[in-house]
Amino acid sequence: MPVDEVVVTTIIDNVFDALLTSDDRVTRAPFASGSVAAPQFEGGRTFTGLRAEHGFSALVTVRRGETTTTLLFDAGVSPDGMTTNADRLGIDLQGVQGVVLSHGHFDHVGGLAGLATRSRLPMTVHPLIWTRRRLLLPGTGGTELPTLSSAALEAEGFRVMERREPSLLVDGCVLITGEIDRTTDFERGMPPPHQAWDGSDWRHDPLVLDDQALVVHVRGRGLVVLTGCGHAGAVNTARHAMRLTGVRRLHALLGGLHLGGPAFEPIITPTVQALAELAPDLVAPGHCTGWRAQAALAAALPDAFVPSSSGTRYTLAAA
Questions:
Q1: Does position 117 have pLDDT exceeding 80, yes or no?
Q2: 91, 94, 123, 222: which could join 249 in a potential S-S bond, CB 3.0 to 4.6 Å?
Q3: Which tens digit of pLDDT belongs to each residue from 19-48?
Q4: How far apart are CA 52 and CA 1, in angstroms?
Q5: Residue 285: phi, psi to the nearest 5?
Q6: Which helix (H) or strand (E) holds 299?
Q7: Which residue intervals define the domain Metallo-beta-lactamase in the entry (predicted)?
Q8: pLDDT for residue 113
Q9: Helix segments in 93-233, DSSP class H
Q10: What is the mean pLDDT of the chain?
Q11: What's the pLDDT tens digit per position in 159-187?
């Protein structure tokens, strides 16, 4: 169902830039966000700004008519990073009505413990989110990544709902894509060092099948697509959202696009070309997108590109 407005607030991202400016679509966090004790200053306090960490978390507030619903999409990497920034931004996480996890990598779920102490919430996940994974880099014996625990989440009071297929939340106003179709010939996923445990051995895990996105249809504008890492590929994700909804207009693409580093930089050009053809009104790539891809997107879509930063609020209203 189309909505009247969606507001996406980036609580945690890899960057906090206190000098970025606001405009009619984007509101930046003030430089003075957060105040802490610091005895070296007169008055004994200083401003901290917001935390930036290699993780992602966003608050999504959807309004349709007189009804407003707020969801949390991912939770950052550190146990207290998301809640610290929420406090500094004046966000009361008690108002969150549900949680959506984009996938199981630890840099998207680490802050859940801080949230669980405040609320008892429904949580939508893909059933493969509990997959054990590791990175087997050359010259190492492999580093196993922290694995999310279903039992721990249930014990904290979360009501976990596993859904492989697309699902609708908020009275049909929010789409969670479930598994995303892989149709492009260049978005091939993770390189061989990224492995998953299959029950008997470690195997290359290129697809990260638990990767899913959150989609909202803003009336008269088109789709707003929010990704965590975009492991399925930014283009695959956007096109999949269009196929599921029947809406042919991409209004905004926000979140991690996983185009950083030598394994993914070779696909920056075709990704940017395909996204430019979709002609979104707003592109705010953050987290794992990488600076080269951000620069390419800024050059190809100068009117749409907005640099991401912790504490940024995007307001996308119906036409």
A1: no
A2: 222
A3: 999 999 999 998 888 889 999 999 999 999
A4: 34
A5: -80, 135
A6: helix 291-300
A7: 66-140
A8: 84
A9: 112-116, 150-156
A10: 96
A11: 999 999 999 999 999 999 999 999 999 99
- pLDDT category of residue 116 using cuts at 50, 70 and 90: low
The DSSP call for residue 31 is T
Amino acid type, 121: L
Give the Å distances, CA to CA, from 14 to 10, 114, 167: 10, 19, 29
Phi, psi of 82 (to 5 degrees): -65, -45
State the Cα–Cα distance between residues 120 and 25, nearest whole angstrom: 32
Q: Which residues of 148-173 are buried (b: 16+ CB within 10 A; e: fewer)?
A: beeeebeebebebeeeeebeebbeeb
Lookup: tokens for 200: 């008997």
The token pair at 190 is: 């993770």
* Cα angle: 206, vertex 212, 214; to 5 degrees: 155
Can you give the pTM of this predicted structure?
Answer: 0.97
> Which residue type sits at 236?
N
- Could you tell me the two tokens for 150? 């279903």
* Contact between residue 276 and residue 303 where contact means Cβ atoms under 8 Å apart: no
Backbone angles phi and psi of 243, in degrees to 5: -65, -40
> What one-character-per-residue DSSP string does 62-94 give?
EEETTEEEEEEE---SSTTHHHHHHHHHT--GG
Percent of the chain with pLDDT over 90: 93
- For residue 102 the two structure tokens come to 């984009």
The backbone region for 123, taken as left when phi is positive above 0, alpha when psi lies in -120 to 50, beta otherwise, is: beta
Question: pLDDT (tens digit, 9 = 90+) per residue, 198-251?
Answer: 999 999 999 999 999 999 999 999 999 999 999 999 999 999 999 999 999 999
Phi, psi of 62 (to 5 degrees): -115, 130
Q: What is the CATH number of domain 5-31+45-317?
A: 3.60.15.10
* Domain range annotation of the chain: 5-31+45-317
Residue pair 73/228 in contact (Cβ under 8 Å)? The answer is yes
